[in-house]
Amino acid sequence: MAEIEIKTAPADFRFPTTNQTRHCFTRYIEYHRCVNAKGEATADCEKFAKYYRSLCPAEWVEKWNEQRENGTFAGPL
Amino acid sequence: MILRSLECRFLTIALCDAAEPWQLGSQDAATPMMQGIIDLHHDIFFFLILILVFVSRMLVRALWHFNEQTNPIPQRIVHGTTIEIIRTIFPSVILLFIAIPSFALLYSMDGVLVDPAITIKAIGHQWYRTYEYSDYNSSDEQSLTFDSYTIPEDDPELGQSRLLEVDNRVVVPAKTHLRMIVTPADVPHSWAVPSSGVKCDAVPGRSNLTSISVQREGVYYGQCSEICGTNHAFTPIVVEAVTLKDYADWVSNQLILQTN
């Protein structure tokens, strides 16, 4: 039986409203900035990855990943 | 039908967690939020009854006394400073007594800045829902994801409610603080579960947040609450609250199933 850790992205004081769209977007950008700065090998960035996976719909992440590969992603990576 | 409604009201075992025919009151509360909403409704209803009685009396009295037989010459009252002041201040005081608990509840419902234990994403579609549990991923593709379709009108099993059942339920742990992220894939929807006191709009291009802390185990029913097309009435929501251990077991089993 796999161990399940009951843990998720914390609340963020930058996004205190019902609208959490930018919270999701910001976590995604934070992760990729971290990867760009520290490289894929390190585990330091995994925290941000867990955050954006919890907050972002899979469809959005898929779309953003595709945009990043095409070089058309709008965010400040 | 009437007896069943009475059962909902008096049996402690059978709590009213689904819409009933001819239902007038709220469903029974499963969260502190809904309990607060019900209490606020009762508070406001008290003032509402007082106002109704007072205004009805004034209206009936005016109609009664405006009568050619008993009052052939009506009074010509043009202005009265005292009554003006009274009828300005008094309603304001009543509104104050209504507004204070209302605002208190409104801001306490805004549980955005409490760290939740679990995040669940409810994604609205025409005309079903997709739920994602992504706290347990180690990559972008491993979400615990399933679709939740209504059980057709002519296909229920014995004991199932018409138009309220789904094939896959949302499973949540009781007595745990949850974060619901609500977003649609096509047109506006609204994720509403009356027993939980939750109604959260799904706006295209936006992910909205609502918090739930279910206090008792059970099955709670809701429906899409934003007109979303032809089958808007056939897009139900079913939430099953279980113990934390059962929830962990369920997640483990689901992850194993999705791996195979």
UniProtKB/TrEMBL annotation, chain A:
PROSITE patterns: CHCH (PS51808). It comes from Oryza sativa subsp. japonica. Coiled coil: none annotated. Keywords: Disulfide bond, Mitochondrion. This is Cytochrome c oxidase subunit. Its main location: mitochondrion. It is found in: Mitochondrion. Component of the cytochrome c oxidase, the last enzyme in the mitochondrial electron transport chain which drives oxidative phosphorylation. GO terms for cellular component: mitochondrion; respiratory chain complex IV. Belongs to the cytochrome c oxidase subunit 6B. Signal peptide: none annotated. SUPFAM superfamilies: Cytochrome c oxidase subunit h. The keyword Magnesium does not apply. The gene is COX6b2. Disulfide bonds join C24-C56, C34-C45. It comes from the Eukaryota.
TrEMBL record, chain B:
One of its GO terms (molecular function) is copper ion binding. It is a multi-pass membrane protein. GO terms for cellular component: mitochondrial inner membrane; mitochondrial membrane; mitochondrion; respiratory chain complex IV. The gene is cox2. CDD domains: CcO_II_C (cd13912). Its cofactor is Cu cation. Residues 18-113 form the Cytochrome oxidase subunit II transmembrane region profile domain. SUPFAM superfamilies: Cupredoxins, Cytochrome c oxidase subunit II-like, transmembrane region. NCBIfam families: CoxB (TIGR02866). This is Cytochrome c oxidase subunit 2. It catalyses: 4 Fe(II)-[cytochrome c] + O2 + 8 H(+)(in) = 4 Fe(III)-[cytochrome c] + 2 H2O + 4 H(+)(out). It comes from the Eukaryota. Binds a copper A center.
